[in-house]
């Protein structure tokens, strides 16, 4: 997993990180994390995000404490109102006595910081509440994909004992699969006025939805979007009938209760599968992802001439791209 090391600015001062570094993997550090001590949770996330040398040890120490949280994925086009809706849900969940961790993966560059600030502002429910922890992540180097850091951070929030972990990601036609593998409940969000995105919804996002939300119910065209998506769903086979379609207005809170109970309903059947099933799902994803990164790195670092030769064979029509790929993967 060759993530570029982010600039120190995005992580807070190195001094703060340094002060926590020694404590984190100690019994006391883990105990503080489990007690949801904010600074410890923040420090652990920072370590996991920057892939510090003690990450492997930290993840090992977290293992026995994983699998309790329900991971809810929120995916959809930019501007659909995901962050606003998450904010509304946090309120509802807090009222029900649940603690909530949020990881918002943003596609923008960490340098700008603009979108990160935007998420913070929209998630005002998280302010001054120890039962809520919000972390925005840039999807650096993984545009259109879920950064492995996000999955490790799920582990940290899970070990810290947050009941519900919400993973907000932009649906781009790539990371849907990642979210599908990592999340226990998959909520796909659309809204009227997003133009071509309806098409994108049909191709990739609809496939993974457990719950389909049409947000901005106050906007003109909401009903039409709802009908279009319900229509698109009806041609999906098998599990399609189980997908709930819910209209919300995140800004006023309309439909949020309905969404909450849909999540709870699906969530309780997932939780009934047991801790081991959910832990394994996340571990499988991490292993597959790490292996893919490893293979990609080896191919790039390996003999350029092998790749060149295969490229020539593909160009001349002697070899299909897929065969060439199989060959190079088997050699690494
Ligand atoms: N009219 C209306 N605007 C909304 C609603 N939900 C979100 N918005 C607005 O849509 C914009 C994008 O919202 P945001 O939550 O950042 O979308 P995200 O990119 O999907 O996270 C913001 O200006 C929100 O205030 C809604 O239900 N109705
Ligand atoms: Mg957002």
Structure, explained:
It is built from 14 helices and seven strands. With 332 residues, it is α/β, with parallel strands linked by helices. It has two domains: 65-274, Rossmann fold, CATH 3.40.50; 284-331, no CATH class. It has a seven-stranded parallel β-sheet with strand order 3-2-4-1-5-6-7, sandwiched between helices. Helix 1 crosses helix 3, helix 3 runs antiparallel to helix 7 (148-159) and helix 5 crosses helix 11. The two termini are 16 Å apart.
* CATH class placement of the largest domain: Alpha Beta
Number of structural domains: 2
Strand order, sheet with most strands:
3-2-4-1-5-6-7
Let me know the number of strands.
Answer: 7
Instruction: Decide which structural class fits the backbone.
Output: alpha/beta
Quickly count the helices: 14
Percentage of residues in strands: 5-15%
Rounded to an integer, what's the Rg over CA atoms? 21 Å
Task: Please write the string of helix (H) and strand (E) elements.
Answer: HHHHEHEHEHEHEHEHEHHHH
Terminal CA distance: 16 Å
Indicate the mean pLDDT.
80
Heterogens? guanosine-5'-diphosphate, magnesium ion
Look up the CATH topology of the largest domain.
Rossmann fold
CATH-assigned homologous superfamily of the largest domain: P-loop containing nucleotide triphosphate hydrolases
Q: Into which percent range does the helicity of residues fall?
A: 40-55%
Name given to the CATH architecture of the largest domain:
3-Layer(aba) Sandwich
Regions with little confidence, pLDDT below 50 for 5+ residues: 1-22, 108-118
3D shape:
flat
Task: Give a quick account of the main beta sheet: strands, pairing sense, barrel closure.
Answer: 7 strands, parallel
